[in-house]
Structures are given as structure tokens and as C-alpha cells.
Amino acid sequence: MISPAHMRLMAAYNEWQNRSLYDAAATLSDAERREGRGAFFGSIHGSLNHVLWGDRMWLSRFTPSEAPDAGIKESASLFEDWDILRAERDKTDAHILAWADAMTGAEIEGGLTWFSGAANREITLPRWVLITHFFNHQTHHRGQVHAMLTAAGAKPDDTDIPFMPNLDAVLNRG
């Protein structure tokens, strides 16, 4: 089981790491960000789009917000323009932080039923399992982006939670 404090920590970590990756990616040209690099979603740009798509898809299940119009197959091309992609990432990270700040233990313990397009069926699971997946999915694909950025010569920040710049403030909230 996870707690509201864990959600706040992971939401803050998510925002920090996204900012780091987007800052590092901004040092590359648009062509370098779009270059096929053998990742599941092809490129840095495609992978960042997919993470944003996944976040918005899950947020539409967790909160009153809209799901992306595109399906998973189109998730790598959610936003073609780099500046728009980055601005939408920032808006979504703010949404994730606000959602995590508002969550209670009772809400985390409840269940969630949704229709999975990937499995083509309705699924019900404990909300805490799905929240864990939500944050784990981000970390998985950010690791891929980090590797692509490093190979391209860009330098993202450290990824270790104990070195998160605002860790003390996050731990003392709530």
C-alpha cells in the first residue's frame, strides 16, 4: 500500500525529472530529438510524447480530465511541435502535483474500474496498484529517454531521489 506522502514524493520526483530531461533535450536540435534511436517509441521526441500521453490517459481515469484523443499507437506523435510538447508537459506536471497533494488515504485504498483498450476489456484493480503503475511507467520511459539523451551528448541531471533539490520541502508537506 502507498500513502499520500508517497504520492506527493513521486509527483515531485516526476516533475523534477521531466524538467531535467526536457532541459537536456532542449540542448539538441529538433532533428536530433526526432532521430530514430531504437527505442520502443523511436526517438527522444516520440518517447516524451508517449510518457505525456500515458500520464494524461491515467489522469483521465483518476481525475475529472479528458483522455487524449489518440490511441497508444499514435501516442508518440501527440504533439509535433517541441515548444507545445514542453508546455503541455509542464501543465500536466502541475496537474499531477495538485492531484497528489489532494489525495487521501481513503481515496488511494479504493478501487478503479476502466475499459482498457490495450486489453480490450473492463478491468478493476485497487487504485494504489494503478497509481504505482502510473509512476512506474513514467520512470521506465524516462530511463529510455535518459539513455538516448546521454548517447546524443546531452546531460540530464542526477536521477536519485535523495538528491532531489526540494526533497526536504516535499517530505515536510502534509
List keywords for this structure.
174 residues; mainly alpha; Four Helix Bundle (Hemerythrin (Met), subunit A); two-stranded antiparallel ribbon; 7 helices; 59% helix; DinB; DinB/YfiT-like; metal-binding
Give an overview of the whole structure.
The structure is a single chain. The chain has helices at residues 4-25, 30-34, 44-62, 82-102, 105-109, 127-151, 167-171, and strands spanning 111-116, 121-126. It is mostly helical and 174 residues long. It has a two-stranded antiparallel ribbon with strand order 1-2. It has one domain (4-171): Four Helix Bundle (Hemerythrin (Met), subunit A) (Up-down Bundle). The protein contains seven helices and two strands; from the N terminus they run αααααββαα. β1 (111-116) and β2 (121-126) form a beta hairpin.
Topology of this protein?
Elements: H1 4-25, H2 30-34, H3 44-62, H4 82-102, H5 105-109, E1 111-116, E2 121-126, H6 127-151, H7 167-171
Antiparallel strand pairs: 1-2
Keywords: Metal-binding
Protein name: Damage-inducible protein DinB
Family: Belongs to the DinB family.
